[in-house]
Amino acid sequence: MKPDSLSYTVYLEVRKKILSHQIPSGTRLIEGDWARKMDVSRTAVREALTRLLGEHLLVMGERGGYYVKSITADNVREIREIREILEVGALRLAIEKITDEEVAVLEKICDDFTNMVEGGYLNGACEADMKFHESILLFSRNERLMEAYHSSNIPLFHLKLEEVYSHMDDYELTDKEHRRILEAIRERDFKAGKKALKAHLYRGEMAALNME
Amino acid sequence: MKPDSLSYTVYLEVRKKILSHQIPSGTRLIEGDWARKMDVSRTAVREALTRLLGEHLLVMGERGGYYVKSITADNVREIREIREILEVGALRLAIEKITDEEVAVLEKICDDFTNMVEGGYLNGACEADMKFHESILLFSRNERLMEAYHSSNIPLFHLKLEEVYSHMDDYELTDKEHRRILEAIRERDFKAGKKALKAHLYRGEMAALNME
DNA sequence: GCACTAAATTTTGTATACAAAAATACGAAT
DNA sequence: ATTCGTATTTTTGTATACAAAATTTAGTGC
């Protein structure tokens, strides 16, 4: 599946739509429909869907058919658990390995978040939020850890939080918490960072659960 | 990809061969060759390979082509890092949630390991070794955590350890270490379990590195 | 109205065809 | 012998065809 292939185009498109909840979870994806919609052969669509199956974004129905994996209330717990495990793990590694330039990158992301919230760019702020967490993974310098993070549908869960940011309070809290984590990283203080990160994730789960 | 489909058959076959190192890492998989070998159409093979791509067992070459993901020396570090993160995380959850029956299952696996080593069934012992670790993941009751474990190619790395078990000492050490972890679980003592598990994994990495 | 069956339709699984791209083999020129 | 270019073969990406399976629709008797 080369980056310039039709299958890859379809793969990216469907993936994006799933991750951004433009396709509701539980939806059945009809190969033919997507082939028509994207004007490619069913073969190309099938290949894209099969890959997404491998990435656990889709599941097979009992009697065949691709369905968007649905998120149950139980999954919120699962995702918080694994998210904490992976992010705290990444934090430990990142604190060992991070350079001053990279700390500056994190700070920049925090600033971007602040500015976008002030400017009313809430989707942008949400992106900066995700980026903050993904950057910590990146700075842990462990390819597999990043893969695990992505293939755990964490980004999916994260985007759902858009809906959570109902009050301006939430944005301000997020901002404060990110900066607390950042400071711990700057000081190479794993214990403080772990504490701040866990509190941050815990609040996120609570916010997500309250709105179900 | 229904369980009775040809694609699924091919998927299972290729997957098994990769995980058991019957196909060396870095090998290019030619669609047509597998189609002939398994007597199915190239379409079915392609579908199987695409799924394995999604599962990160295969990667694409620069100019197309499916290759078995190779394990570099650097990966050994990466895998040990993520393995520790995931297994320690799973251990914490498992200790919270495990039932007495499940503790008994773990004990049975330890006994099986002992018996197979004594009987000279070294491959079987290796399987029991894997099973011990996977069971802890299972008892953590987090589907995504298990998925992350599997999609990090940890089982692949693990099987490579077959080669490591050169001396009978290694088996005895493994046995002792497993039982130490088991005891900690039985006592619901996370700190002791974590310590034993980390030591166990660390020794595993050392053994793996020595033989490169 | 409801349960059940049969027919019609949709959807999937698989094979095949073929052009484009990549890899390989071969030979000439230096 | 090495490098280059060209011809040949292999391999891939995509479309299409078609039978099998699943789903929907329609009709029937109750």
TrEMBL record, chains A, B:
Domain of life: Bacteria
HTH gntR-type domain ranges (all copies): 4-71
Organism name: Membranihabitans marinus
SUPFAM superfamilies: GntR ligand-binding domain-like, Winged helix' DNA-binding domain
MF terms (GO), sorted A to Z: DNA binding; DNA-binding transcription factor activity
InterPro entries assigned: GntR_C (IPR011711), TF_FadR/GntR_C (IPR008920), Tscrpt_reg_HTH_GntR (IPR000524), WH-like_DNA-bd_sf (IPR036388), WH_DNA-bd_sf (IPR036390)
Keyword field: DNA-binding, Transcription, Transcription regulation
Name under which the protein is recorded: GntR family transcriptional regulator
